[in-house]
Write a structure and sequence with these properties.
alpha+beta, Nucleoside Triphosphate Pyrophosphohydrolase, 5-stranded mixed sheet, 3-stranded antiparallel sheet, 7 helices, globular, steroid biosynthesis, NUDIX_hydrolase-like_dom_sf
Length: 249
């Protein structure tokens, strides 16, 4: 059986729309996070390829209400092939191998605008990519099961390909139930309580890593620096922007 037919066989029984999305063309990168080629989402998420060092680029966006400072969480739909039924940050996905999304930070921001509309129904006119604040990149390995996983790096290198983004803007939601089965706005204390009450397996691995290493100090910095209109503005955190490598293995 060829590799392609093997991969297709692994998708049998999954949701048809989610199978279709596995053909999207992700960005395969080298150890310096430089474009190498495109690769299907299916190829990039297969654990056998991941274990052989295949790297692809991703982003994780955290959306905050500018008036309350609350964070929007989503619960991934049961139809999702990787990490179904898990709580995570507002939007996490992949820049695609298209002209508007291959250029590092700007490409990640453009991808975030696209996926906020796809997953949560947030109109693109409500998401100005220039208001999205890049903070850093992380390297992690997180397995979903024995077949599919997320890999934004490799154990044999320290490539950083997961772009962490903050955004503060008022939004309206029209959730895509094939992507998201629940959502909620939480304060810092409410998130801490939620993570204490629920089993750790209720949250995606990358979300737990970001929470443990960065989120609360960045979130507190956001709350400590409202703009002149007394609203919270992610661009006020530009001083925290860093290309430092964070190895969260």
């Amino acid at each position: 059986m060829s590799p392609t037919s093997t991969e297709d066989a692994l998708l049998l029984g999954h949701d048809e729309e989610q199978i279709r999305l596995m053909e999207e063309r992700c960005i395969v990168v080298n150890d310096d996070d430089e474009f190498v080629r495109d690769g299907s989402k299916k190829e990039c998420h297969l654990m056998t390829n991941i274990q052989n060092g295949l790297l692809h680029r991703a982003f994780s966006l955290f959306l905050f209400d500018p008036k309350t400072g609350k964070l929007l969480l989503q619960k991934r739909a049961p139809e999702k092939i990787t990490f179904p039924n898990m709580w995570t940050n507002t939007c996490c996905s992949h820049p695609l191998a298209v002209r508007s999304e291959v250029d590092g930070k700007q490409g990640a921001k453009n991808a975030a605008q696209r996926k906020l509309e796809h997953e949560l129904g947030i109109p693109t006119k409500q998401v100005n990519v220039e208001d999205v604040q890049f903070l850093t990149r992380i390297h992690y390995l997180a397995t979903s099961d024995n077949t599919w996983g997320e890999h934004e790096g490799t154990l044999r290198s320290l490539t950083i390909v997961d772009y962490i983004l903050f955004l503060t803007t008022p939004v309206t939601l029209n959730v895509n139930k094939n992507e998201v089965c629940d959502e909620k706005w939480v304060s810092m204390d409410e998130l801490k309580q939620l993570m204490n009450e629920l089993d750790p397996s209720s949250f995606t691995p990358w979300f737990k890593l970001i929470v443990n290493e960065f989120l609360f100090k960045w979130w507190q910095a956001l709350l400590d620096h409202p703009n002149q209109n007394h609203e919270y503005d992610a661009k006020m955190l530009a001083y925290l922007e860093s290309d430092q490598i964070h190895r969260l293995l």
